[in-house]
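User: Hello! I'm new to structural biology and keep hearing that structure can be predicted from sequence alone. Could you demonstrate with Reverse transcriptase domain-containing protein? Please show me the input and the output so I can see what each looks like.

Assistant: Of course. The first part below is the input, the amino acid sequence of Reverse transcriptase domain-containing protein. The second part is the output, the predicted structure written as tokens.
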Amino acid sequence: MRPEPEQVASMRPEPKQVASMGPERKQMGSMGHGPEQVASLRPEPEQMASMGPEPEQVASMRPEPEQVASMGPEPEQVVSMRPETEQVGSMGPEPEQVVSMRPEPEQMASMGPEPEQVASMGPEPEQVASMGPEQEGLDSMGPEPEQMASIRHKPEQVATMGPEPEQMASMGPEPEQMASIRPEPEQVATIRPEPEKVATIRPEPEQVASMGPEPEQVVSMRPEPEQMASMGPEPEQMASMRPEPEQVASMRPEPEQVASMGPKREQMGSMGHGPEQVAFCVFFDLSVAPKPPPGPAVVQRRQINESTRAQFVEMINPENVSGANVDEMLNSVTSSILNVLDAIAPMKVQLRKHRQKAPWRNDDLVRAQKQQCRRAERKWRKSKLQVHYGIYKAELYAYNQILCRTRERYFSEIIGSCSSNSRILFTTVNRLTNPPTQLPIELVCTPKCNEFAVFFNDKVQGIKKAINSTTHITIERPPTHSKLTHFVPVTDQTVQETITRLSSSTCCLDVLPTRFLKSVLNSVLPSITQIVNMSLQSGIFPEALKTAVIKPLLKKSSLDPTVLNNYRPISNLPFLGKVLEKVVYQQLTDFLLLNNSFDVFQSGFRPHHSTETALIKVTNDIRLNTDDGKVSVLILLDLSAAFDTVDHGILLHRLQDWVGISGSALSWLKSYLEDRKYFVEIGSCVSDYMGLNCGVPQGSILGPLLFNLYMLPLGQLIRSNNISYHNYADDTQIYVSLTTGEYGPVDSLNHCLQQISAWMQDNFLQLNSNKTEVIVFGPQKQRESVSSYLHSLSLKPSNQVRNLGVIMDSDLNFNSHIKSVTSAAFYHLKNIAKIKNIISKRDLEILIHAFVSSRLDYCNGLLTGLSKRAVKQLQYIQNAAAGVLTRTRKYDHISPVLRSLHWLPVPQRIDFKAALLVYKSLHGRAPKYISDMLVPYEPSRTLRTSGTGLLLILRVRTKQGESAFQYSAAKIWNSLPEGVRQASSVFMFKSRLKTFLFSRVYD
């Protein structure tokens, strides 16, 4: 079927005929496809299987360069391949021959695919929309911008590229001639090449390599997004390009015609690639647009500096206090302070951008040096002289040096002033090492603040409504010997000491910022003292100080910030209210200690009591029970929002009947509890006020003390069942010991647990059964039998529990606790190591003691009696901390480093804690339950050891007994020199004790 070379020359039209063979430019607008039609040109995924070769086959389809030259006619042959005008007419069949070229109906069955193949070969009308590329897929369908210039024709060339309109009518057959163009069946066979000829049409593998673009050329063929707009027809031209519905029906072949329109299924294997050889291109619609940055926040602030303080002291009148009651007096003082502040530092509204700026950059010296550096930089960029460049580099170096020193001084001031406040230190280090966690911007609005306020209130009210008391527990109260009828007025000195000792935290409710108040305290101290005394004498707590501001805090950074239940309400109270609370707290505590009103086994928020003393008492009892061959069962009780559900009426009744408070003192406490309110603050947005009708104020000074008094009957209830217990605020633990086969104590424990649950319901406290934990201590075989009996009582023991921050296991070897401490300490040590280059060595040591050493020392009195191997991991932490501080290499010997730092190793730190607690117990500065463990040694006759302060060492049989505090602490105490034991003060004892232990280790 290929013409001879001499015939090709006669088939090319003359140049003058080419001009009339294309459409005019104005006609080309209707010859393209619109975007909605382009979408209908995309084949379905199942049709793509046979549409192209695999990438590895493309390499074999490119011909060699030397073969390319022989693949087309020579230039001189092209001229002879154009047909003459008179020959064009004889190049097609005559009309009468067209009729004979149509195949018979019975022959058409073999000319197309089988009927079952029809479904995938023609789109339905509703499928037309999905057959073209998506709008976003057009990005990869054209050349790069630099290639477009060579592809576009000049305007004057477009005019000669198609036939004239009047010539187009004669360029195709008439409709009535179309029927005669179809060839006869016998002619069809001569049109299709024989199978053996097909093989000669396919190029050799080595020819395929040069037949397509290289991979790096493909990347340059994609147009830019801004060029896509000019690659298709205009929207107004698209209306004329869509076929009418009746035309679509005529474009679909009949089923009997489809059978002859394609190859057979068995022939498709050689024509393309199977479905398993086709790689599909999948398009994703991703919304990756970045979130818009938050707008500037509107803030109100006063510019307060050193000159402002001096002006305030000069203008304020400390004696200008007037009013008939405490509320009027407070309003008078507040108005006077605000008038002075408005005069010297008026409130200004500013737009603060949401960006973190280092505060040390605001230093005057830093800003001056920065301006000088920028000035040198501009001069160098303008002149381009090397001498100016050297000046600029010198100024830049000086700026960096000043910035480093200022930054170091800034953090040194924070660390030095808060060395005893681990919370502020943690905030400082966390801000340096981790990005700040902020609330989502969508939560910073008034509706969300109101939503938080309602949620926090409904949570407490829901707990109270869920409490359904069916029984009433009657507990006999102890007799009270004295009464507290009123609070004593205080002096200026007492108020000054109280303010100085309180934390400098402040909130938006304070008229004066706390730090500013402390700096001008002498000028306002008389006014504050008058307000405090008026409140104590009248028995009224000021209404303005009953408001709390709540700030939601996400419990964990990994939690969903859009879920309200993942937030913890943090309450902030006015500073002046805390001063008044502290004065009452001191007088109320003195009264309770004088009358022994505290529960002996209540260690929460009491002087000389701590979580460590509480755990020492519990573990000592359990270890001694194990030494006696007994099994111990410990139950940890958990309360839900215990401080928030305290009933005010029950609390006031308990203060009067159980404690002995009456008169104006009781009236003051009643005024303090009632009519309190709060609002939620997020950023610059606040909620409406919400009232509080129950609970003790969160974040207050008196709240924990009042809760301890509220829980007084619980200890009486547990003691009546002969059950051992210990309380730390709202954390209660009860435990019993029993021998093998004796389950009576377990039954008593279960009965006591039921009574505790009933008592808590009577007092509007909810026992959280899901967080109540049970653990059994003792030998393995005995633990298993007791655990089986506990299961029958619906009590499920655990292998380990967390008790007041310490992980306790059934063997009491504290391996899990040591691993937890190691992990947490190394985490903080890693964060500290990140900032060691921007702080001084002294400040670095303070941070290490605050975050690492404090974890080594927390409740390490429980580790007395353990072997050095058991605490070896803790020693690794101390060694690593010493290495960070002194920049010691990893494999250097660490003992000289510890000696140079004067650090006691971990085993000696444990002995130090035990000996210090013994000294405090013997001198009345420890809980009574600790003092009762330590019995002075009294020989039967006078010996040299008489009166030397030795302790009686308990006789034990097992390692558990040797690890008990009562045994190990007495042994450590007796090993100390008499000069250490006879120290006259705690400070002197600590100094002598450290010297003794240090010399014993390193000398």
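User: So the tokens describe the shape?

Assistant: Right, they're a compact way of writing down the 3D structure. Reading them back into a model, for example: The first strand starts at residue 297 and ends at 301.
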